[in-house]
Amino acid sequence: MTTDVFYEAMISLIGEFLQAALTAGLVLLATSLALNGFGYFRARAGRIAGENRVRRVLGETPDADDKKGTNRLSRKWVKLGGGFYGCVGLLTYAIIELDEIRELFSVDGLAALAQNLDIGILVTFFIESLKNFITAVTWPVFWAREIETDRYWLWIVVAWLGYDAGRRIAQKLSKQEDGTEQ
């Protein structure tokens, strides 16, 4: 009898792991890969810009890839906590905002918006955006309410594994592009 309970618990755990992997894990892998890949690309562009400044001083012709301030966004991302917490926070904010935009452009929402468009609506948008930002910063509370499970820890672990996999893939691709790793 106890082995049946054990097998049911294991099947339930495996099922929830697969659900977490296919939703949170894959989404965070893609988000992390995109954000970190972009960061590595910008850092590489910043190195090229620095090399081009040296070439100008030496009187040589710089590369066409020279862009002023190309590494600013990457520095901001790292400075503002662009790790796992920042990635999930950004994703949470995007999901909340996209849901509100979807509601806004529903048939009734768009007609009501067109009739009531004034400064009050803009203030309301600003306040809602600020509330959504606070919700995104406190994303563990938001997702604990959204995901109905007793195994919230499993979702966090799977999400982190997806984030870390995306980060490592972006790093590996960046090194291959630079020619530092084969």
Detail the poorly predicted runs: 64-70
Q: Largest sheet, described in full?
A: none
| Whole-number count of domains | 1
Total number of beta strands: 0
Q: What is Rg?
A: 22 Å
Question: Which band does the percent of strand residues land in?
Answer: under 5%
Which class best fits the helix and strand makeup? mainly alpha
| Count of helical regions | 7
Give the ordered list of helices and strands: HHHHHHH
Distance between the termini: 54 Å
Q: Give the rounded overall mean pLDDT.
A: 77
What is the general shape? Answer: flat
Helix content: over 70%
Keyphrases for this structure?
mainly alpha, single chain, 7 helices
Please render the helix and strand layout as text.
Elements: H1 2-57, H2 72-79, H3 84-104, H4 107-116, H5 119-137, H6 139-146, H7 152-178
Quick summary:
By secondary structure, this protein is an all-alpha fold.
Write structural notes for this entry.
There is one protein chain. The protein has 182 residues and is an all-alpha fold. It has one domain. Helices cover 82% and strands 0% of the residues. It is built from seven helices and no strands. Helix 1 runs antiparallel to helix 2 and helix 3 packs antiparallel against helix 5. The longest helix is centred in the N-terminal third of the chain and has 56 residues. It is flat. The termini are far apart.
